[in-house]
């Protein structure tokens, strides 16, 4: 399979490598000439055989919308665009309808795996027609975790189904991190317990709270037991907000995820102790930037 990949950052660059390791021919484009295979979008499209498949892996919002609009002018009937970024699910219906005016297919795909996806594979949640999904299936198979039937799911044929599922995934992630962070703050504060990193490490085996997120947090605590190097400040990617908005629109109670989102807002007003743990975990799984103390 030949595929174009736009965006070669922390995730996109690793995805290119993983697909190439699986035998796919990947033409990557980035504004950084040091990592880009071609000099422009036009050159990327010209390098692909028809029908073309182009995967967009850049920041959500206007960067993705403008890139898909540009691809609409460059691609032809029967080609396919995959939006693998963290776009809001409502953007997908608009993009799909616009591309359909020229007979260009569209698949939205939520991608989870962070900086570890190259090694472990990515969880892929996609939306779109069966016909369009079949065109990109070799790439899905190359990217998903090996030796399992999980990690790849067709969330629905309606554009936006994949990104909606990924949005809810990230909302759950907010609540999980907040719970770990609050527990860590309490354990770290009291005098009655010692060796907090190893307490967390002990939970990784045989307990109901074990998870890969916990594994990554233990690594962070062992490197900086009290997280003294970090400020208690954590960004939100937007998907937590969208999850809460969707909950309101559908009258679904979501107290844990809502509280976790608002806790991040509090962190921007003061140096929140628990939020240092959130920042550490986000850095661990996704390579997200942290705010260090001076």
UniProtKB/TrEMBL annotation:
Residues 162-289 form the 6-phosphogluconate dehydrogenase C-terminal domain. The keyword Oxidoreductase applies. InterPro entries: 6-PGluconate_DH-like_C_sf (IPR008927), 6DGDH_YqeC (IPR004849), 6PGD_dom2 (IPR013328), 6PGDH_C (IPR006114), 6PGDH_NADP-bd (IPR006115), 6PGdom_BS (IPR006184), HIBADH-related (IPR015815), NAD(P)-bd_dom_sf (IPR036291). Keywords: Gluconate utilization, Oxidoreductase. Belongs to the HIBADH-related family. Belongs to the 6-phosphogluconate dehydrogenase family. This is Decarboxylating 6-phosphogluconate dehydrogenase.
């Amino acid at each position: 399979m030949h595929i174009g990949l736009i965006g070669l950052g922390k995730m996109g660059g690793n995805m290119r490598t993983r697909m190439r390791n699986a035998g796919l021919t990947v033409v990557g484009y980035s504004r950084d000439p040091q990592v880009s295979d071609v000099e422009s979008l036009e050159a990327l499209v010209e390098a692909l055989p028809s029908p073309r498949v182009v995967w967009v892996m850049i920041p959500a919002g206007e960067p993705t919308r403008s890139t898909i609009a540009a691809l609409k002018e460059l691609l032809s009937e029967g080609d396919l665009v995959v939006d693998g970024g963290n776009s809001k699910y409502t953007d997908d219906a608009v993009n799909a309808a616009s591309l359909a005016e020229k007979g260009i297919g569209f698949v939205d795909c939520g991608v989870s795996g962070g900086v570890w996806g190259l090694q472990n594979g990515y969880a892929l949640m996609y939306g779109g027609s069966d016909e369009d999904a079949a065109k990109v299936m070799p790439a899905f198979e190359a990217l998903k975790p090996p030796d399992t039937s999980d990690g790849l799911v067709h969330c629905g044929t309606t554009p936006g189904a994949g990104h909606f599922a990924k949005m809810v995934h990230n909302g759950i992630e907010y609540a999980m991190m907040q719970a770990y962070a609050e527990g860590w703050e309490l354990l770290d504060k009291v005098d009655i317990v010692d060796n907090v990193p190893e307490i967390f490490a002990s939970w990784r085996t045989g307990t109901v709270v074990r998870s890969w997120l916990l594994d990554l947090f233990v690594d962070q605590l062992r490197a900086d037991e009290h997280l003294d190097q970090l400020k208690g400040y954590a960004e939100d990617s937007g998907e937590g907000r969208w999850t809460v908005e969707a909950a309101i629109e559908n009258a679904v109670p979501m107290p844990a995820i809502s509280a976790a989102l608002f806790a991040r807002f509090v962190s921007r007003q003061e140096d929140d102790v628990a939020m240092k743990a959130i920042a550490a975990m986000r850095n661990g799984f996704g390579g997200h930037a942290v705010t260090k103390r001076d």
